[in-house]
Design a protein that fits this description.
Pfam families: 2OG-FeII_Oxy_3, P4Ha_N. It is built from 13 helices and 15 strands. By secondary structure, it is of the alpha+beta class. A hairpin with a 4-residue loop joins strand 3 and strand 4.
Amino acid sequence: MELRGVCCVLLTCLFYTSSADKDFFTSIGQMTDLLYTEKDLVTSLKDYIRAEEDKLEQVKKWAEKLDVLSATATQDPEGFLGHPVNAFKLMKRLNTEWGELELLVLKDMSDGFISNLTIQRQYFPNDDDQTGAAKALMRLQDTYRLDTHTISSGELPDSAHQRANGNLKYFEYQLAKQNKVEAEEGQKEKEKREREKREASDKKGRPTDYLPERRKYEQLCRGEGIKMTPRRQSLMFCRYSDNNHHPLYVLGPVKQEDEWDRPRIIRYHDILSNSEIEKVKELAKPRLRRATVHDPQTGKLTTINQRIEDITGLNVKTAEELQVANYGVGGQYEPHFDFGRKDEPDAFKELGTGNRIATWLIYMSDVPSGGATVFTDVGAAVWPKKGSAVFWYNLFASGEGDYSTRHAACPVLVGNKWVSNKWMHERGQEFRRRCTLNESE
């Protein structure tokens, strides 16, 4: 991945599930705009209906009046026309009033509505968006093993659903059930299935490791396949941290939680306030598209950037600017590495700041179902919690890439997922995270 532009405050807004120009279905933010567009069109449509009803009411009054008049006149035509006023009114009606009625009937009341619809249509989703949304539903069905009735009825799992949200009790229950014999048998069965799928993949000309990783990815998204043993789990803690007696956190320490041990993944709670989250989203919303955007309002994110530096101990001056992403229907991100690998020597060459040493991922919304960040190589799953941030090192202290940090974003099943990333680079960290001669340290 490359940084397309550098400025004081830079918000990169990416969407991961379609290559369409608008990509409406990938962004709740943009789909929200569509809701208001549709609301405006409904208002315009109601105005048109009222105009048509008013016109029809006038025509009905004409019809009722003329029906009574013609019924009376035709009972005694000669007597009726013998009255000079009646004769004049007949001439007037046929010569003038029926012409006015004709103009009323022919009057097109839809001009305003059609004009508004024509203007708004240029912002409508296209066929690619509709197809993308359909594929997203299929992806959700496959990943979370939902039947067709569940999808069609809209009875999707809520936040209490253990498979969709992978709550802690469910994890603990599954971990407690695992014993040595089951683990060995499961490993043998797993190797057998992987071997069979590799053979099938070879026949189809697909990468041999795609299907096993895809299966692990989907299992983790469902809250299954967690590999941490109870013994390792017992060594994971929550704590208050003052970051080595940092002046800002001695009296108000940060809430730190161990999410995983190898690689070490740490969650920091209550990192961003609601007002700060809204500020970031406000800056990002007008620019939610596949592009790097420049924000002229400097200083908006200074406090957040400084907080990241204070907590991680890493220099953020050489870090990439904040990247904001909004995941919509089925929004996901395939397994990937954040760091540049040896076969990508020019991954961040234009920045001149070295490789991505660490990742800081902020969750800016709660997600009722789905949307976990999963590490497919080690079996870790981290679930979104608004205002919290997770942190891990992509590189060992030696500078070698840590391939166990391969991760992905699970599809959002229900809800709206906002996240922001901060990638710290090697330059400027020489005395903050000293290197070692051991490649695996």
